[in-house]
Specification:
Length: 156
């Protein structure tokens, strides 16, 4: 059984299905268990977590589909069915390969954008630290001047 995302209200969503194996992950994502959601039970989330919850559910469902395919393959082999046919079942189609390649390219683009953003953020932080260092140096000089003036005033 897969995980399913449902709208609950204007401000919340919930995840139902076979959630028990993913209890800790759903908690870490900010979900709360609710045994009475529109006649079923599930994990309720704020709608502002929808994107990350959708990504999690999608990944879980993909993983489950792979497990189901492998289980079916093993079952076919155990039943004495043609191994070549069973192997063909595990091989991705050209369309699936295109999707995988596109996913990889999208991920590469996202990683490159993140790298650029991190470099920009790093440069910004470095500039701010330089400014702070200059400010601290100026304050230190001002404080030293103040102490000198105070000492000369006190000794006069």
């Amino acid at each position: 059984m897969s995980l399913i995302i449902n709208d609950y209200s204007d401000k919340s969503i919930y995840v139902s299905g076979d959630t028990k194996p993913f209890k800790e992950e759903l908690k870490k994502l900010g979900g709360r268990w609710n045994p009475n959601l529109k006649g079923e039970c599930g994990w309720i989330f704020s709608k502002n977590k929808k994107e990350i919850v959708e990504e999690f559910v999608e990944n879980v469902n993909k993983e489950k589909n792979i497990k189901e395919i492998v289980e079916e393959f093993v079952e076919n082999v155990n039943k004495g069915k043609n191994i070549k046919e069973s192997v063909r079942m595990l091989s991705p189609s050209n369309e699936e390969l295109k999707i995988i390649k596109n996913d990889i390219n999208e991920t590469k683009k996202e990683l490159e954008e993140l790298r650029k953003q991190i470099n920009e953020d790093f440069e910004d932080i470095k500039d701010r630290l330089d400014l702070l260092s200059n400010d601290i140096s100026d304050l230190s000089k001002m404080f030293s001047n103040y102490i000198e003036e105070k000492n000369s005033y006190d000794s006069a």
